[in-house]
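On clarity, I found the account of how folds are encoded harder to follow than it need be. Since the whole study asks how a given chain folds, the encoding of that fold should be made plain. For illustration, here is how one protein appears when written out as sequence plus structure tokens:
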Amino acid sequence: MLDPTQLGELHARGWTTVPNAVTDDQLADIRELVWAFLESRGLQRGDRTTWPETVGKLQPLRNAGVFDAFLGPLIDGIADQLIGTDGWTTLGVRPQALITMPTTEPWRLPHKVWHFDLPARGPTDRLAAVRYFGLIDAVAPRGGTLTSA
């Protein structure tokens, strides 16, 4: 699960990293499936002029289980560690996609096509939810750099 350094980062800045949560082979497979989906929508891997800044309507990727490699004992264990072993749930949904393409501007979390709903109830003295992001490619700080493109 999270080691003392990761826990310290999480408490100090609100996030930490969990390297190697999935294998390199799984990441390569996910990237290929994502690019196949993007190419079916007119984006060309080798032509950045075809890339919009953000890509929406990504439910087919979720429904197909493209990101399911990010589910499993490691993530469950981290949730147990942070929230506790009694009462948390995955809300019955598969991992969703957030795809942004590189631009010349600093990256900002999109807020129009992607958001996080959480009911305004629950404990106030501890974490009520954990959101994790599984990166499928190298991402520069404040960037959206696609090294495999």
About this structure: Residues 1-149 form one domain. Residues 145-149 have pLDDT under 50 and may be disordered. Helices lie at 4-13, 24-40, 59-63, 73-83.
